[in-house]
Amino acid sequence: MSKKQLRNRLENLFANLVDNTVEQPPVQTSLPPVLKPWNWETDENGCYTVCEDTITAYLGYSPAELIGQSLVSFGLSEDSASVLQNAIHQNHFPLDITVVFLSKKGNPLPARLTIFKKLGSTQLNGGFRGFVQPLVESESIKPPIVKDLPSEKKNHQRNKALIRIPISI
Questions:
Q1: Residue 112: which of 128, 126, 93, 130 has the closest Cα?
Q2: What Å distances lie between residue 85 and 62, 71, 74, 99, 144, CA to CA?
Q3: Is residue 168 part of a domain?
Q4: Number of domains into which the chain is organized
Q5: What CATH number corresponds to the domain at position 139?
Q6: How many CB atoms lie under 10 A from the CB of residue 54?
Q7: Inside any domain, residue 13
Q8: CA dist 124 → 39, 119, 130, 139, 156 (Å)
Q9: At a CB cut-off of 8 Å and minimum separation 6, what does 75 contact?
Q10: For residue 154, which phi and psi values (nearest 5 degrees)?
Q11: Beta partners for 39?
Q12: Which of 28, 35, 98, 158 has the highest count of CB atoms within 10 angstroms of its CB?
């Protein structure tokens, strides 16, 4: 059988088929947008000295408004500020803590705050540096959670007490 005959035969076989396919709407496969973290640094007193401008998109503050403000209080909910202050006082670094920032308009923004201790040139404490990773909006706002990155099991009891502080929104 030649190619032409085969093609004609196939066309005759499938000529009576009806296209019953219904066009389906596109499947939503988009993931939540990745929220860009912002980096920051403080001096030995815990006051911001450096902050990326990414903060403006989330909290409405410019980096200039943040410079000179306290790491443990500026832009944080009361509960988060208290938990953060206690965690820093424990002096276990690096530190990973979930907090709630308050935007310039007062809206809560849950975020993960990671803090590293800087070593100063002439002193043990040269301040802190770290980054803030905003959590996606679909994640529920939970109480502040503190955990030490390197020795989490060793400090479980200390962290357990800190986890129990509720957040009021």
A1: 130
A2: 23, 9, 12, 12, 12
A3: no
A4: 1
A5: 3.30.450.20
A6: 17
A7: no
A8: 22, 6, 17, 38, 26
A9: 59, 61, 66, 69, 101, 102, 103
A10: -60, -35
A11: 131
A12: 98
12, 14, 17, 19 alpha-carbon torsion, rounded to 10°: -130
Q: Which domain holds residue 55?
A: 34-163
Q: Which residues pair with 48 in a beta bridge?
A: 42
CB contact at 8 A, 46 and 125 = no
Q: What's the token pair of residue 113? A: 């705050």
Asked, as a colleague might, if the bond just before 94 is cis with ω within 30 of 0, I would say yes
**142: closest CA among 111, 103, 113, 102?**
111
Q: In terms of pTM, does the model score above 0.85? A: no
Total length of the chain: 169
Return the structure tokens found at 88.
């820093």
Task: State the first-to-last Cα distance of the chain, in angstroms, to the nearest integer.
Answer: 79
Tens-binned pLDDT, residue by residue, of the chain (169 aa): 788 888 888 888 877 776 666 666 665 544 445 678 999 999 989 999 999 998 998 899 999 999 999 999 899 999 999 999 999 888 888 999 999 999 999 999 999 999 999 876 555 578 999 999 998 653 444 444 555 555 444 444 444 444 444 455 4
From the list 100, 104, 103, 82, the residue with the least C-alpha distance to 141 is 100
